[in-house]
Amino acid sequence: MEHRVVSLRLPVPAQDVLLALFITVMQVQGTVARVAAEGASRPLTDLGYLGYVLLVASGVVVAVRRRWPVPVFVTAALASLVYYGFDFPDGPGWLGLFVALYTLAAYGDGRRSLVTAGVGTTVLAVGWLVAAADIEPRAAIGWVFFRIGASVMSAALGESVRSRRVIAAEAQERAESAERTREEVARARVDAERLRIAREVHDTVAHAIAIINVQSGVTAHVLDKRPEVAREALRAIEQTSSRALREMRAILGVLRDDDGDDNDGRVPYPGLGQIDELTAKAREAGLEIKLEETSPAAPLPSAVGSAAYRILQESITNVIRHVGPTRVTVALNPGIEVLEIRVTDEGRRAAPGGDRAAPPLPARRPTSTGGSAGAGRGILGMRERCRLLGGELDAKPVPGGGFEVRARIPLAPTGSRR
Prior knowledge:
Elements lengths: L11 H27 L7 H15 L8 H17 L9 H12 L4 H21 L10 H81 L4 H27 L21 H10 L3 E6 L8 H21 L4 E8 L3 E8 L32 H11 L3 E6 L5 E8 L8
Parallel strand pairs: 1-2
Antiparallel strand pairs: 2-3, 3-5, 4-5
């Protein structure tokens, strides 16, 4: 059975009305009781019941203290100055004034409210002391100092409450800001992961399709005349497509595997350890690959190795797609602080004679800004990979024909790659 907690707390306006009634009754009744016990130089009924009017006014005005704190304080202060200035009997007629002072400091705007409370208290102190100049007995002047001290304490208590409220509001705002920041960081991580997956998919698919395209062209060209060559080309197509499917399964598997413990049938993200397989596939596609590789002094970070592999893969893919059979030099030089990568091709050359003539290839090739019309965004993607790791990439034609891609990747990446 569901239990509901019923709040018995009154609305704020009702609370203030009840407080005002309580203060009014206490001020009037307390003063009357004291007059009856000790007597008074001037009864509350003098001057057209002015004493009663002032006590009631300073109490009733508390009902609107939250809405108009300054006018309420001014009203209560003026009532107090007139009351004691006309030498009406002392009593608890200061309750409404103390509540008004507290409200002014607690619900005001800080400095200006404190200045108002300070000036008002000073004026009240002077007025009370002047009114008590000829008070008898002299010991009764202690009540004047009590009123002054209680006024200061009321303002101080109100300022303390206001300060705590401001601190709590600032803490709440910081918590909300931190929550928004966490959400933004989470969204940024999701976007970065999507970008990484899209880049991996692009590199994998583009490389595989480029090799399959060349090999299928060779197959169509030599199928009738040299079936053994066509068979080798079909086998290369099968191996390339199978490898691409495995890589795609590994890349996209993270999207559906929440536990991360089911890695059956997946392959690790490619790195420089697979460069021999990459160059072998390139040779099957008709490229003459010359590999200049220096052994690193220490194992490369996985992020650097994966990025380097993808840069090499994309560079070789661009040569296959836009140049065709040619000589390509791949140089890897892992230094102390950076890994230098250079891929240089000699440009388009005449197709070899005989039956192994290469199929027609497009005349366009990518530019340094990401490719010519229809060439895709391969170089732009390579440059982005380097930038994410704090490196740089330059891709441009070389004198005498050909094209060169040169990259420098720090071995201690300054960016983030997941």
